[in-house]
């Protein structure tokens, strides 16, 4: 029995902050939050997709409180953060960030007071609360690896914006934790310490029984993080012409009759319960190059056609996939590249299976949980 589960152990108070841009942050924190929710008193600061998810998940839980915070969207440019561009973003206009965040902090003060531990996944309001109370602050994300690693350049893109956000949001931390599906070559001189773990893999993915069929079956996932260069109609048309394969397309809007034109294309809305079953049966994945889904694909041994946004993180993720033969990368869905991807799926699958130099094998959450328990919650 874990000592934290013993009745004599007084529960600790933990504040989690979860970024709400896309679903990657939500899914990364879920195994940790579920674990600590069983034995500790917890509060979650969240916004966007994360607030929608966690406020629903814990609506009937007496020991977990979820409150909304407001975080400006800072635009990344080639030389770092673009403050003028950020000022003009529609979602940053007309929002009373101060009032929303003070309300969240007031609720935290009333419910938990000084937290024993604060964990942030790119959510800066919880960090401010930690500073106010001099509580231990842990950052747990995947961007912190850019503080310590060597990375290639991509057509003028840099990861300076990622470093600037980390420095601005979290200037002082007890420990920075990063997860990565690929190994990171460290810089010659390190300014600070970042612990890198394998990616967090949700239990339903870790326990997934893979049962791909003989016919190519491709899961297509179009992120809601930002607008993709191609329309849903164009993507469905390209997939529909690749008739030897079946395509299951998950999009922010779902089907609006487009799939009726193509017998081998099926369209679902994000959050559809059939996603996990389709993931278990697919032979390949086409996706924008976010960290979470690519991590799950590499864990499950599924080749990827990566279509990165013009963001350094996505370009880097796609580079790993393409450069090391775990799939292909292109800025959009292309008919000829798609045909080559489908044809070479067995070769890509073998490259993933046989790699022992690039991919971070295993599941990171158990080691991360043990670190937090031993350092802060014992």
Write the layout of secondary structure elements.
Blueprint: E1 13-18, H1 24-37, E2 41-46, H2 48-57, E3 64-68, E4 75-77, E5 80-82, H3 83-88, H4 97-111, E6 117-121, H5 124-133, E7 137-141, H6 160-169, E8 175-179, E9 194-197, H7 203-206, E10 217-221, H8 232-241, E11 246-251, E12 265-269, H9 275-281, E13 284-287, H10 291-300, E14 304-306, H11 312-323, E15 327-329, H12 335-343, H13 345-354, H14 365-376
Parallel strand pairs: 1-2, 1-6, 2-3, 6-7, 7-8, 8-9, 10-11, 10-13, 11-12, 13-14, 14-15
Antiparallel strand pairs: 4-5
CATH superfamily of the largest domain: Glycogen Phosphorylase B
Shape: globular
Structural class, judged by helices and strands?
A: alpha/beta
Domain count: 2
- Strand-residue fraction? 15-25%
């Amino acid at each position: 029995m874990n000592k934290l589960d013993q009745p004599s152990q007084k529960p600790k108070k933990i504040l989690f902050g979860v970024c709400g841009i896309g679903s990657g942050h939500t899914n990364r924190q879920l195994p940790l939050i579920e674990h600590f929710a069983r034995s500790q008193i917890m509060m979650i600061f969240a916004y966007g997709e994360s607030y929608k998810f966690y406020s629903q998940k814990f609506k009937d839980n007496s020991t977990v409180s979820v409150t909304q915070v407001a975080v400006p969207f800072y635009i990344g440019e080639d030389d770092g953060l673009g403050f003028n561009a950020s000022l003009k973003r529609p979602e940053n206009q007309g929002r009373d960030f101060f009032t929303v965040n003070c309300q969240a902090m007031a609720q935290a003060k009333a419910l938990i007071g000084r937290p024993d531990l604060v964990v942030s996944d790119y959510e800066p309001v919880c960090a401010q609360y930690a500073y106010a109370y001099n509580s231990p602050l842990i950052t747990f994300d995947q961007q912190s690896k850019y503080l310590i690693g060597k990375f290639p350049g991509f057509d003028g893109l840099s990861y300076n914006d990622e470093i600037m956000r980390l420095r601005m949001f979290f200037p002082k931390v007890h420990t920075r934790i990063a997860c990565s599906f690929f190994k990171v070559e460290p810089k010659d001189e390190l300014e600070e310490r970042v612990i890198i773990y394998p990616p967090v893999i949700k239990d339903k993915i870790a326990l997934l029984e893979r049962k791909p069929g003989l016919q190519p079956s491709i899961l297509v996932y179009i992120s809601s993080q930002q607008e993709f260069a191609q329309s849903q109609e164009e993507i469905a048309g390209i997939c529909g012409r690749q008739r030897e394969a079946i395509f299951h397309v998950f999009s922010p809007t779902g089907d609006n009759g487009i799939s009726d034109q193509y017998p081998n294309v099926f369209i679902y809305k994000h959050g559809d319960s059939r996603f996990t079953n389709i993931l278990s049966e697919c032979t390949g994945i086409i996706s924008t190059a976010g960290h979470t889904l690519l991590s799950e694909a590499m864990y499950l041994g599924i080749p990827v056609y990566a279509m990165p946004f013009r963001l350094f993180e996505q370009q880097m993720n796609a580079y790993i996939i393409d450069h090391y033969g775990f799939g292909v990368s292109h800025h959009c869905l292309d008919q000829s590249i798609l045909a080559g991807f489908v044809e070479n799926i067995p070769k890509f699958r073998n490259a993933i299976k046989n790699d022992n130099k690039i991919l971070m094998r295993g599941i990171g959450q158990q080691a991360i949980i043990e670190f937090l328990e031993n350092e802060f919650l014992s």
